[in-house]
Design a protein that fits this description.
Layout lengths: L4 H4 L4 H15 L4 H29 L5 H8 L3 H9 L7 H17 L3 E9 L2 E8 L7 H16 L5 E4 L24 E5 L8 E6 L2 E8 L2 E6 L13 E3 L2 E3 L6 E3 L17 E5 L2 E5 L3
Parallel strand pairs: 2-3
Antiparallel strand pairs: 1-2, 4-12, 5-6, 6-7, 8-9, 9-10, 11-12
Length: 286
């Protein structure tokens, strides 16, 4: 049966999560017996999917190059979210520290403040206070009794917690792509965040490798400047609303996710990206 245009449109992660939240809210109005039955069915489907993923990955672990392929696949935010939900991928160090900070943020917000994660490089974690907490006479007490305790409780291997001032600067964007925080070495500084406006793409050469660096709000992406079809350069292609079209054979890709709209079985090769003090850093995937 033919697929309608509406059915063929792929949704992004926020849209999919919004659909789930809407269904959960709808179920809240049901009688308790129906609500419990729906919840049990959802848990059973989750358990089935989790077991299938675990068995699939177990079977593929001996396949050459499976590790790098899984890492590349998990750079897609939807794949990463699903594998994390089922416990197949463990939370990155960056996520664990952010989860610790989330436990203290309501208290900081009640005083008009916040805390920002500046850097994670075990055993050191560096944070910066924002808003009313920045420069507040009681910030030292807040740091030691709140932030430092929260981080060490959730991430015990972080034994050196530091507070710095004035490191956010500029636009204050902090971004780490999935798995980027696992890698300490091999990062290359590229451009200042202010030189990469929202919605723009730049072509850069890093270690003799050409890459496409794009910005979507607070999210930065980096992909090989190479069409997954036949390997031709993409930088002469037309870019429109986050999509780039290969100038040679018309293959079209999303610069936000790397997926190919022309042939869904292929995608652009991603690279690790992080923003440190408003400098965009890239770690090439070999």
């Amino acid at each position: 049966m033919a697929t309608s245009p509406e059915e063929s449109v792929e949704k992004d992660l926020p849209s999919l999560l919004s659909d789930i939240a809407a269904l959960e809210q709808l179920a809240d109005t049901w009688p308790e017996e129906q609500r419990n039955a729906a919840h049990a069915r959802g848990e059973a489907i989750d358990a089935l999917n989790a077991e299938a993923f675990k068995r699939l990955i177990k079977l593929l672990t001996e396949v050459p190059e499976f590790g790098p392929a899984l890492k590349a696949a998990a750079s897609d935010e939807i794949v990463y979210t699903v594998l994390r939900r089922h416990g197949i991928l463990r939370a990155s160090l960056f996520e664990r520290v952010e989860a610790a900070l989330e436990t203290i943020r309501p208290m900081l917000a009640s005083h008009g403040g916040d805390v920002e994660l500046v850097k994670v490089e075990l055993p050191k974690v560096v944070v910066r206070f924002l808003g009313a907490c920045d420069g507040c006479p009681a910030s030292a007490l807040t740091f030691y009794s709140g932030v430092k305790t929260a981080i060490q409780t959730h991430v015990p291997e972080a034994t050196e917690i530091q507070q710095v001032k004035g490191m956010g600067g500029g636009e204050g964007v902090q971004f780490v792509s999935p798995f980027a925080s696992f890698q300490k070495d091999g990062w290359t500084e590229t451009v200042n965040l202010k030189d990469l406006p929202d919605g723009t793409t730049q072509t850069l050469d890093i270690d003799d490798q050409s890459v496409l660096l794009s910005r979507f709000g607070d999210k930065i992406t980096c992909f090989n400047n190479s069409c997954a079809h036949m390997g031709f350069r993409l930088d002469d292609g037309v870019i429109d609303e986050g999509l780039i079209t290969c100038p040679f054979h018309g293959f079209q890709y999303s610069l936000e996710s790397g997926e190919c709209l022309t042939a869904p079985e292929v995608q652009l090769q991603p690279h690790g990206v992080r923003v440190t003090r408003n400098i965009v850093e890239v770690r090439l995937t070999r």
